[in-house]
Amino acid sequence: MSNHTCDGFVVACIDFRFQGFIKKWLEEKFQNKTYDYVGFAGSTKNLDTIIGQLDISVRLHHVSNVVLIHHEECGAYGAESTHDRHATDLNIAKKTILEKYPDLKVDLYYLHLDGEFEVIE
Predict the structure, then answer these.
(1) Any residues with CB less than 8 A from the CB of 23 and at least 6 apart, and which?
(2) pTM of structure
(3) What does the radius of gyration of the chain's CA atoms come to, in whole angstroms?
């Protein structure tokens, strides 16, 4: 098998309402770069599944940047889809990833219904 690399690993929810915003944003953020993309209901809500996908991306594609995107009114979260809950889950995901892969850069975003990407610290 040949050795090939990409710059990033991106995780976002499958919700169709946000795909146009995400595509445009990724075209700008990853201009002239490559990335593995995972679309999963709830984004990182099922963190074990996402970590499994990240393990493959790190092993096969040697990614250096992880981008995690949650969004407003996420059906996978139902009534728990609050800004605070998403921010908490994103930070848990970041901590978990960095414990396993301390050299990765992990960026967190919350996507609003109007297409605004909010950086989560």
Answers:
(1) none
(2) 0.95
(3) 14
How far is 60 from 84, CA to CA, in rounded Å?
34
Cβ proximity of 57 and 9 under 8 Å: yes
Cα 104 to Cα 107: distance, rounded to the nearest angstrom:
10
DSSP state of 115: S
CA-to-CA distance for 28 and 23, rounded, in angstroms? 9
> Between vectors from CA 92 to CA 86 and to CA 95, what angle results, nearest 5°?
140
Q: Where are the domains of the chain?
A: 1-6+36-72+82-121
Say yes or no to pLDDT of 107 above 80.
Answer: yes
Q: Is there a contact between 107 and 51 (Cβ–Cβ < 8 Å)? A: no
Instruction: Read off the pLDDT band of 10 (50, 70, 90).
Output: very high
Indicate whether 26 pLDDT > 70. yes
